[in-house]
Amino acid sequence: MTTTLYTSDHEWLAIDGDVATVGITDYAQSQLGDVVFVELPKVGRSLKKAEAAAVVESVKAASDVYAPVTGEVLEVNDALIAEPALVNSDAQSKAWFFKIRIGDKSELGGLMDEAAYKAHTA
Amino acid sequence: MLARDDQDSLKKTPLHGLHVSLGGKMVPFAGYDMPVQYPAGVLKEHLHTRSSAGLFDVSHMGQIALRPKSGKVEDAARALERLVPQDIVAIAPGRQRYAQFTNENGGILDDLMVANFGDHLFLVVNAACKDADEAHLRANLADDCVIDSLSDRALIALQGPKAESVLAKLCAEAPTMKFMDAGPHKVAGLACFVSRSGYTGEDGFEISVPAADAQRLAKTLLENPDVMPIGLGARDSLRLEAGLCLYGHDIDTETTPVEAALEWSVQKSRRTGGARAGGFPGAEKILAHFDNGASRRRVGLLALGRAPVREGALLFANSEGGEAIGKVTSGGFGPSLNAPVAMGYVPTSHSALGTNLFAEVRGQRLPLTVAAMPFVKNTYKR
């Protein structure tokens, strides 16, 4: 059973057990515009919650993607390196950025569900 | 986000309503509420301009008529030469030239276009500088010229390989014009000033139209399936690929025309030994740069990797250690090249084509090469 939560910085996390798959929301990609470059964290890196973990660059500007929870990077989506535009076409599925082992489940408490995120971006 | 008060204080061009109706994403720019992109997005808008025709609203820019009190346009030209290092006297009627207002230190106050309309000069200046430019003109040229700010006109740029065929349907003279020809022409029956110029590296036109007729003309142009509306985002990536300076970024009051690699814009008549050498603000320093070289220079930069190198990135001679030797002044992704492009200032000793440099991006030094500009070959109809 997967639960999807959202941060106020427009990351989504699909949580499956103690692993979260992280990406940026469809709302975020629509604000960024055409994505032309993505920089991903190294597998094995330990991230602290709210630490800059990845970078997404549109034609216009560079934006950080923050770690939504503390934990270790287990896997990154190399498809984004080859095809950054996936972020525009499929932000909340194929264009996931990295998978992280959730170090402290209590950190999930501060995140939003879909209804709360919709209200946040309305 | 801007506070409501700030949004309300933004000025609107005569095409504002059209931008909103076309789905333009509006942002504050030089005091105006302007479209940064339309629903197609920056990439598509950029590539459409390179392959077909793009319509840009550049009405925020300043349009100024310099009317000689004597009635002789040459007197207005001689007067303007007191403020710019260009040969204005030699601009033939119906022709236009790129120029810069300079300051006493040889820096650039603004860059502008100057056209000779036969009985007066027509100037187009940057939006953010237009009030200061007008005051500068009044303070220095009022004895010789009437300075007439044409604030009741809009300015539309039509750029790209199909710009000529599109405009030819509305303006009989368009196909006969060459790059930098300029003059009063009827477009769709409206009293316009048309120049064959722009700032994208593409062939194209700029059309000054009375504000009251601007929406009608823009809509008529957009009815042509070859034309797409283009926002500020693609305007910036197009001019960057064309290697053209953006005022306040690549040139400013701290850069001389020689440092900015704009020597081509200063004619021999105004340089040392020329018929009307000097006589403009900062001439001593600018002519010394012409005669002896400047210690730094604007260069084009191509990144070897995929990461865009943006404005403000520091430049280094080596992959590690050492002090920064320069800075990127414009940079981003070039959609036509499908690669990052940038320009910046480096010591002249490091400005030769092919020089390897490094830009610091997020703590890493990314390799770049000094490259020839324009990055994309221009297609002006000379």
TrEMBL record, chain A:
Keyword Transcription: no
N6-lipoyllysine: modified positions: 60
Keyword tags: Lipoyl
Subunit structure comment from the entry: The glycine cleavage system is composed of four proteins: P, T, L and H.
GO BP, sorted A to Z: glycine decarboxylation via glycine cleavage system; protein lipoylation
Species for this entry: Bradyrhizobium betae
Protein name as it appears in the record: Glycine cleavage system H protein
Cross-referenced PROSITE patterns: BIOTINYL_LIPOYL, LIPOYL
Family stated for the protein in its record: Belongs to the GcvH family.
Job of this protein: The glycine cleavage system catalyzes the degradation of glycine. The H protein shuttles the methylamine group of glycine from the P protein to the T protein.
Coiled-coil boundaries: none
InterPro entries referenced in this protein's UniProt entry, alphabetically: 2-oxoA_DH_lipoyl-BS, Biotin_lipoyl, GCV_H, GCV_H/Fam206, GCV_H_sub, Single_hybrid_motif
Cofactor(s) needed for function: (R)-lipoate
GO CC annotation terms, alphabetical: cytosol; glycine cleavage complex
Cofactor binding mode and count: Binds 1 lipoyl cofactor covalently.
HAMAP family: GcvH
Superkingdom of the source species: Bacteria
Domain Lipoyl-binding: 19-101
UniProtKB/TrEMBL annotation, chain B:
Biological process (GO), any one: methylation
Family listed: Belongs to the GcvT family.
Keywords assigned by UniProt, alphabetized: Aminotransferase, Methyltransferase, Transferase
GO cellular component: glycine cleavage complex
Protein name: aminomethyltransferase
Coiled-coil regions listed: none
Keyword Methyltransferase listed: yes
Alphabetical list of InterPro entries matching this protein: GcvT, GcvT/YgfZ/DmdA, GcvT/YgfZ_C, GcvT_C, GCVT_N, TrmE/GcvT-like
Catalysis performed (reactions): N(6)-[(R)-S(8)-aminomethyldihydrolipoyl]-L-lysyl-[protein] + (6S)-5,6,7,8-tetrahydrofolate = N(6)-[(R)-dihydrolipoyl]-L-lysyl-[protein] + (6R)-5,10-methylene-5,6,7,8-tetrahydrofolate + NH4(+)
Record-listed E.C. numbers: 2.1.2.10
Domain of life of the native organism: Bacteria
Gene that encodes it: gcvT
Aminomethyltransferase C-terminal domain segment(s): 296-377
Residues annotated as domain GCVT N-terminal: 15-269
Residues where substrate binds: 206
GO function term, MF aspect, one: aminomethyltransferase activity
Organism listed in the record: Bradyrhizobium betae
